[in-house]
């Protein structure tokens, strides 16, 4: 969406998009389960779903599912994930984010317009090979939708390569950015 907006007439900052990196994305996967989407639109859901569930061990279950190697998800890391839960208004913000994500599940028409907006731009799709939230198959399907794309699957990695395998993520992104910069330099000469 950001690349699409940058290419429209509303591009006040004269930004040129040279490439797009997509990390564990899907144009069709629903992030919020349908039962939760229904409850998120009610005050009952806000008070009796979001707050109690996130204060329980469900956050640990969700976080463990996002990691390939859950042993790397130490007590210290889990504590850091839970830290925002003690900030005043955290549940209100999370409730609104959940509602927003459930409201913005892309229709086929919107998804197609987003794909068209970046059809001539190099796209790097990065996925955790063992991602249980957005499967490698889904990432492969995503990469196949672009004319000029490359898929990198990071092995021994779940949904959070930036946390679980940051060096492998950097190794995937760096050559892509280097090629874009080199091509940009050659065009400006």
From TrEMBL:
Pfam families with a match to the protein in the record: Abhydrolase_1
Lineage: superkingdom: Eukaryota
Domain spans labelled AB hydrolase-1: 74-166
Protein name (Swiss-Prot/TrEMBL): AB hydrolase-1 domain-containing protein
Organism of origin: Lotus japonicus
């Amino acid at each position: 969406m950001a690349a699409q907006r940058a290419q429209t007439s509303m591009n006040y900052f004269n930004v040129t998009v040279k490439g797009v990196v997509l990390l564990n994305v899907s144009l069709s996967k629903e992030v919020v389960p349908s039962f939760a989407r229904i409850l998120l639109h009610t005050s009952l859901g806000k008070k009796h779903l979001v707050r109690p569930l996130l204060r329980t061990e469900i956050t640990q279950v969700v976080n463990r599912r996002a990691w390939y190697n859950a042993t790397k998800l130490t007590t210290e890391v889990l504590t850091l994930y839970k830290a925002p839960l003690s900030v005043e208004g955290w549940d209100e913000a999370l409730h609104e984010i959940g509602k927003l994500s459930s409201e913005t599940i892309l229709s086929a028409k919107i998804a197609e317009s987003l794909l068209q907006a970046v059809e001539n731009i190099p796209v790097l799709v990065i996925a955790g090979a063992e991602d249980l939230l957005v499967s490698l198959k889904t990432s492969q399907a995503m990469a196949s939708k672009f004319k000029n794309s490359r898929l990198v699957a990071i092995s021994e990695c779940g949904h959070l390569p930036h946390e679980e395998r940051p060096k492998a993520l950097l190794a995937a992104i760096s050559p892509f950015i280097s090629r874009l910069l080199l091509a940009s330099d050659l065009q400006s000469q």
